[in-house]
Amino acid sequence: MGSGFFSSSIGRKIVVALAGLLLCLFLVVHLAGNLLIFAGAPTFNHYAAALEHNPLLPAAEIGLLALFLLHILFSLKLRWENHRSRPVGYAESASKGGRTPGSRTMLVSALLLLAFLAVHIKTFRFGHPGDSLYRMVMTWFSNPYYSAFYVLSMAALALHLSHGVQSGFQTLGLNHPRYTPIIRALGVAFAVALCTAFAAIPLWALLAGGAR
């Protein structure tokens, strides 16, 4: 892809869509690993050690960072261009039919997710696990304030994905009166299922005694 592709509005939209959908794939893989915590400390710590010593991990983290930066920066650029091209009357027209809670809160949910990402990386990627990563995770999730922040962030992620998944597929050309409602419903189902599963971990640690 040349510079002309990235400088065009449709090109940036495609990059945002592809990066977002690849990030969804990462979330599925990340969730699969996180859910091993329900299998107990030995299984989860073995998974964490295998991941930590994987020689491909640095390259994967660089690629993941690139996806985040592309998705965020190009989204901000598109939003600014939309605002600049129609600064008057846009809010009124956007409030009319077709808008969903997810689409109306994309900026707010994105900002909350950025804050969550910064805290999450500092806590679990650059923190000190002590005896084990399992114990570290459980110790943090036994804190009701941290668990509440985590669950709130997962709610924001669900809102973001509920619109983002369908919007991404639509940008890539899957836009048809017959199939769009199905894609939208599947996107909402994916968002709710994924984020509920993520939120179940701190709730289990906090409410069901997982930390003990």
Count of the separate structural domains: 1
Gross geometry: globular
Structural class: mainly alpha
Order of helices and strands: HHHHHHHHHH
Radius of gyration: 19 Å
Q: pLDDT below 50 for ≥5 consecutive residues: which ranges? A: 89-97
Mean pLDDT: 88
Question: What is the makeup of the main sheet?
Answer: none
* Fraction of residues in β-strands: under 5%
The number of distinct helices, counting runs of at least 4 residues, comes to: 10
**Tally of strands:** 0
> Ends: how far apart?
53 Å
Determine the fraction of residues in helical runs and give it as a percent range.
over 70%
Properties at a glance:
212 residues; 10 helices; 78% helix
Quick gist of this model?
This protein has 212 residues and is mostly helical. Helices cover 78% and strands 0% of the residues. The chain has one domain (3-91, 102-207).
Question: Can you describe this structure?
Answer:
By secondary structure, this protein is mainly α. It has one domain. It contains 10 helices and no strands. The chain has helices at 3-7, 9-34, 41-52, 57-85, 90-94, 101-104, 106-125, 133-141, 144-171, 180-207. Helix 2 packs across helix 4, helix 7 crosses helix 9 and helix 9 runs antiparallel to helix 10. The radius of gyration is 19 Å and the shape is globular. The termini are far apart. The model is unreliable at 89-97 (pLDDT under 50).
